[in-house]
Amino acid sequence: MFRILRKLILFSLLLVTLIGLYIYQSTVIPLKDTLLANDTDGVNAVQCVTHSPNVPLDRHGYLDIAIWNIYKQQNEGWQNVLKQLADRTDLLLLQEATLTDDLKALINEQKQGWVLAKAFIFGGEPVGVMNLSQDYPLSTCAFRYSEPLIQYPKSLLVSYYLLSDNSQLLVANIHSINFTLGLEEYRAQLNVVAAAISEHKGPVILAGDLNTWSRERGEYIATMARNAALTEAVPNDDSRTTIFGQSLDHIFYRDLQLVKTESIVTDSSDHHPLKAYFRLLKKIP
């Protein structure tokens, strides 16, 4: 019995080692913070891009925004969920998106403009956060922060979108780092977002997989939101993915009118999508 157990342990260690070597050898971590868009050549490494959108992000004052950690498209059925979300939202913010041929084909079919902040490249395919919308943002920049324990980066996008009232919507799409012993690195990753929000005069969306699996992380995000005058969009029937009883995915907003929020249950990822419906605030002359 002891010999069998020892063989099982040795086999498990060998299997874990082989998987680790495969992941390590298949992964490329870019030296610079770079992004891709469907109008970039993918050769020149750029951190920021600008566009001249033809239409505003909202529809006559209505603005629907959804977020989803798509789990690198590993589960079956992700195409149907993604297509429905893209069809029914003005801005879709993805985390853990892998830029495969299947994903690019679906996006092109939906005639969506996209930008992706490369966290790393796995098996020749970029992985990171992605924004999908009918037109491009006015400007967008990619940023990364490495997991302190495993050294794999997480990425985020800070973008500015034109609205129909001629204001600009700041959107931060974030995949927060996960494996830390304290809050120092977690706070450091969000500093660039906090700085951008503090300098922006207008509506804001801060959203994504914030990995708020601890009370301390949740309290830090709540403090950050309060300091920036942000309000969280929380669904009444809350089916968001949780760890240790804490929700991981969030949408915070400022200078927008929230109509409703909903979480969408699916088994096509290890996260459930979250969607918020907004209206632009009426400006008083």
Write the layout of secondary structure elements.
Layout: H1 2-26, E1 27-28, E2 35-37, E3 48-50, E4 62-69, H2 78-88, E5 91-98, H3 101-109, E6 113-122, E7 125-133, E8 139-146, E9 153-162, E10 168-175, H4 184-199, E11 204-209, H5 215-227, E12 231-232, E13 242-243, E14 246-247, E15 249-254, E16 256-263, E17 274-280
Parallel strand pairs: 4-5, 10-11
Antiparallel strand pairs: 1-6, 2-6, 3-8, 4-17, 5-7, 6-7, 8-9, 9-10, 11-15, 12-15, 13-14, 16-17
What features would you describe in this structure?
The structure is a single chain. Helix content is 26%, strand content 36%. The protein is an alpha+beta fold. The protein has two domains: 1-30; 31-280, Endonuclease/exonuclease/phosphatase (Deoxyribonuclease I, Chain A), CATH 3.60.10. The strands form three sheets. Strands 1, 2, 4, 5, 6, 7, 16 and 17 form an eight-stranded mixed beta sheet that branches. The longest helix has 25 residues, at 2-26. It is globular.
